[in-house]
Amino acid sequence: MKTIFLTLTVLISSFVSVFAHTTDLEAPNDEKSAKLIKMVEEAGNNDWKTLKHAAVLTINWGGDLEMAKAWIDKAITIESNALTLEVLGDYYIKTGNVEKATETYFNALEKGVTNLGKEDMERIQRKVLVYARMK
C-alpha cells in the first residue's frame, strides 16, 4: 500500500511538473537560475541527466528548493537510478530531513552497486556514513 501511495505521489507530481511552465512573473531575477530554467525547458522529454544536473546546481547554490524537487522528481520518473536518488538525498539534507536523506542514499547504493563507477560509489558511501550518524 505504501509503495502504491509513493508511486502515485511521484506520478502525480511529475505529471503536474511536466505541464507547469514558468511565466515571466515566476521566473527568478537571478541570471543563473534563469539559465537553468531555460536549460530544463529545452531538454528532451527523456533527458533525466539535464534535470538531475539542474537540480544539483539549484540545491548547491541555495536556489529554489521546490523547483529543484520538481526537477529531481521528474528525473526519477524518467530514470530511477543511483545518481538521481543521490540528488534526492541531497535535497532532503538541504531541507533538514536527515533520516529521509539517509534512507534515500541507501537506496541509491542498492541501485548502483553493479553499475556505478568507483568515484560515484565512494561519494554516496561517504554520505551514508556521515548522515547515518546524525539520525
Number of strands: 0
Task: Please identify the structural class as seen in this structure.
Answer: mainly alpha
Helix content: over 70%
Mean pLDDT across all amino acids: 84
CATH top level is: Mainly Alpha
Over all CA atoms, what is the radius of gyration? Answer: 15 Å
Keywords: Signal
Signal peptide: 1-20
InterPro entries: TPR-like_helical_dom_sf
Protein name: Tetratricopeptide repeat protein
Describe this structure as you would to a colleague.
Keywords: Signal. This is Tetratricopeptide repeat protein. InterPro entries: TPR-like_helical_dom_sf. With 135 residues, the chain is mainly alpha-helical. It has one domain: Serine Threonine Protein Phosphatase 5, Tetratricopeptide repeat. 75% of the residues lie in helices and 0% in strands. It is built from seven helices and no strands. Helix 2 packs antiparallel against helix 3, helix 3 runs antiparallel to helix 4 and helix 6 runs antiparallel to helix 7. The relative contact order is 0.10. About 12% of the residues have low confidence.
